[in-house]
Structure formats: structure tokens, C-alpha cells
Design brief:
Blueprint (H helix, E strand, L loop, with lengths): L24 H13 L3 E2 H12 L3 H13 L3 E6 L2 E6 L9 H36 L4 H27 L6 H33 L6 H8 L15
Antiparallel strand pairs: 1-3, 2-3
């Protein structure tokens, strides 16, 4: 009877863990995550990576990180306005020289792979940019059909020209060319004479050339954007 009246045995601290302790809650999740990743994280990084899987809120993540820092389970570094958290490296076994050498080789290999992938990405981005500027297959099919129609129209027009009876003879063509040369030479000669005459008048004219042309009513080739054709 006396044994039944004794108080219950106290639960050891190592077995009983309250809410928010290292075995449960946000702190435990963050501690396990940081140790598995073993690299620096900001509160935003940790929140973004764990929010979907564990449903942790931003405030809970910040409080848990501060709690783990105060408990000495993780380290905190401040860079300006941002805080970075990472696991205490003293809790990890030290690597031997051979292990470090293996890690260095892995880093070197991975760096080479990263460089190769970056070069491939640049090539693929360049190719993608070029493809985006090109026509799509349906656009090319449509363009080909339109070109075929144009070719058919031009072929038909050419056949009509070939079959026409009113062809210009070489003699008639030569005559037209000679007349063009004659008229162009005369045009140039008369323009030169008019220019020399007007320059002589303007030497004693008190106003500007433009005012003189307006008063007299002279219109130039330049007013109508006309230029002498080559002979």
C-alpha cells in the first residue's frame, strides 16, 4: 500500500520535450534542414524552401532561427540589414587531408561542368533568340503559297508581253533614248543660263534671293523636288 501512495516517477529531461524544443516544431525542422544543407541561409531563404512542405510562416521561421542562435545550435552573421544563419561547424567532424583533396577535386570537376553548361546555355539562348526572330512553319507555308501565286502572275504577264504584236523595235528604242539625252542636255543648259542671269541680278538686289524669287514668281526644280536625270 505504501508503494502505491508514492508520487509518480519524474520524466527525464532527455525524454520529455516541450513544444518548440529540438525534437518538434519549427526550431527542430529548421535545425535539421540547416544541418542537412550545411550552407548559409537567410530567414527568407529558409522560409521559401520550407513553407510549402511544412507550412511554416515567416514569423515562426524568424523566431525559430533566433531561438536556435540563442541556444548555440546555429551561428548568425549580420551583413548590413540582413542576417545569415548556418549550422555550428564545431558539431561536424573535421575532414582529413585526403578528404579535403577529394572535395577539392570534386569542386574542380563541378566547376568545369558548370562552365560547360553555361557555355551551352549561351549557345542555346543565342539559337533561341534567332529562332524567335524567324518565321514559324505555318508562316513559312503561307509565305511560300503567296510567292507561288506571285510567280504565276508574273509568268502569265511575261507570256502576254512575249505574245504581244506591238513590240518596240531597237530603232524606236534608240530614238527615244537619244531624245531623252537631247532634252536633258537642253534642260541643263537652260538651267545654267537662268542661274547665271539670276546671280547677276541678285548682286545688286537689296533683298534676299528667296524674296526676289517670290516677288518675280520664279519656281525652281527644287521647289517641286525635281532633279535632272542622268544622261
Amino acid at each position: 500500500m505504501e508503494s502505491m501512495l508514492q508520487p509518480p516517477t519524474e520524466v527525464p529531461a532527455a525524454v520529455y520535450v516541450g513544444k518548440g524544443g529540438p525534437s518538434g516544431g519549427a526550431a527542430a525542422i529548421l535545425l535539421r534542414y540547416l544541418q542537412e544543407q550545411n550552407r548559409p541561409h537567410s530567414a527568407q531563404d529558409a522560409f521559401g524552401n520550407l513553407q510549402r512542405e511544412h507550412g511554416l510562416g515567416k514569423t515562426a521561421v524568424v523566431k525559430a532561427l533566433e531561438q536556435l542562435t540563442q541556444q548555440g545550435k546555429i551561428k548568425e552573421k549580420v551583413y548590413g540589414k540582413q542576417k545569415i544563419y548556418f549550422p555550428d561547424q564545431d558539431h561536424f567532424p573535421s575532414a582529413s587531408d585526403s578528404e579535403l583533396k577529394v572535395l577539392d577535386n570534386e569542386i574542380s570537376d563541378l566547376s568545369c561542368k558548370v562552365q560547360t553548361l553555361q557555355q551551352n546555355c549561351c549557345l542555346m539562348e543565342s539559337e533561341l533568340k534567332e529562332l524567335k526572330g524567324s518565321m514559324t512553319t505555318p508562316e513559312m507555308v503561307k509565305e511560300i503559297e503567296e510567292l507561288k501565286k506571285d510567280c504565276a502572275n508574273y509568268t502569265e504577264k511575261l507570256e502576254r508581253i512575249k505574245s504581244a504584236a506591238n513590240h518596240v523595235t531597237p530603232e524606236e528604242k534608240e530614238k527615244v533614248y537619244n531624245e531623252k539625252k537631247l532634252y536633258c542636255r537642253e534642260w541643263r543648259r537652260r538651267k545654267r543660263m537662268a542661274t547665271e542671269l539670276l546671280d547677276a541680278i541678285l548682286e545688286g538686289y537689296p533683298k534676299s534671293k528667296k524674296q526676289f524669287f517670290e516677288e518675280v514668281g520664279i519656281e525652281t526644280d527644287e521647289d517641286f523636288h525635281v532633279t535632272l536625270p542622268p544622261i
